[in-house]
Design brief:
- This protein is of the alpha+beta class and 228 residues long.
- The chain has helices at 7-24, 36-48, 65-69, 91-101, 143-159, 178-194; strands at 53-59, 75-81, 120-128, 130-133, 136-139, 166-175, 199-208, 217-225.
- It has one domain.
- A hairpin with a 2-residue loop joins strand 4 and strand 5.
- Helix 1 packs across helix 2 (36-48) and helix 5 (143-159) packs across helix 6 (178-194).
Length: 228
């Protein structure tokens, strides 16, 4: 675990607080009605409570400067930093500047920002066994493919960047029961491994939520990504 942090438990505690707030408000819609971006906000608030720095939508560190300026460039959902308040260092730019100033009298000072290899890079996916389709709660017909695909794609993407030393894939799953969630997440992990995904294992936490559309549990699985 990165800095001894149990990410699954921390995030679940944040979801439980949000669920309790909705219950007290007597909200008609629950956590499972929020879209992925809104759920990202809930997760970020939970992670901020740990005291680590939390950055959202950070360009992957091995991208070239031109790629980072591209509005369609790859971004990581969130990054945990051991130094709150600091941005992630542009390592490629720092290397270039060191080469350009090497041997000069006034060499370039130490690069600013946090080394990307000291941070935890996190990709998040949210999947529901029951979801809203055109405003109507229905069983999710893409449930299995979404769950399996989320684990594999994120693991491959995170493991392929040589400047990422610590990475995790986070899956937030809404389901009818915790037994279904645990079984289906295990199947998703095994299928991803069968397809060559660099997944070492995962930690799992769950809690009940109010049944509004068929989902009775919220579960968090934190998949540890294996570096090549």
């Amino acid at each position: 675990m990165w800095h001894g942090l149990n990410i699954a438990r921390v995030v679940l505690e944040g979801l439980v607080r949000e669920e309790e707030s909705l219950r007290l408000e007597r909200a008609v819609a629950g956590l499972d009605s929020l879209d992925e971006i809104q759920l990202h906000g809930v997760i970020v608030r939970a992670l901020q409570a740990t005291g680590f720095g939390v950055l959202r939508e950070v360009p992957f560190p091995s991208l070239s400067p031109a790629q980072k300026r591209d509005p369609q460039r790859q971004r990581c959902d969130m990054v945990l930093s051991p130094e709150p308040g600091k941005q992630i260092r542009d390592e490629l730019r720092s290397r270039r500047e060191r080469r350009e100033t090497e041997g000069l009298l006034f060499a370039h000072s130490a690069p600013e920002g946090v080394d990307p290899r000291e941070c935890l890079w996190i990709e998040v996916k949210c999947v529901g066994q029951f979801t809203y389709t055109n405003g109507v709660p229905l069983p999710n017909r893409s449930y299995a493919s979404e769950l399996i695909g989320a684990v594999r794609r994120d693991a491959v993407k995170l493991a392929s960047d040589p400047l990422i030393a610590h990475a995790a894939g986070l899956v937030l799953l809404f389901s009818e029961s915790c037994e279904i969630a645990e079984h289906d997440l295990g199947v998703a992990a095994n299928r991803a491994l069968d397809r060559g995904a660099p997944v070492k294992g995962f930690s799992f936490e769950h809690a009940p939520i109010e049944d509004r559309i068929g989902n009775r549990y919220a579960s968090i699985a934190a998949f540890e990504i294996e570096r090549p």
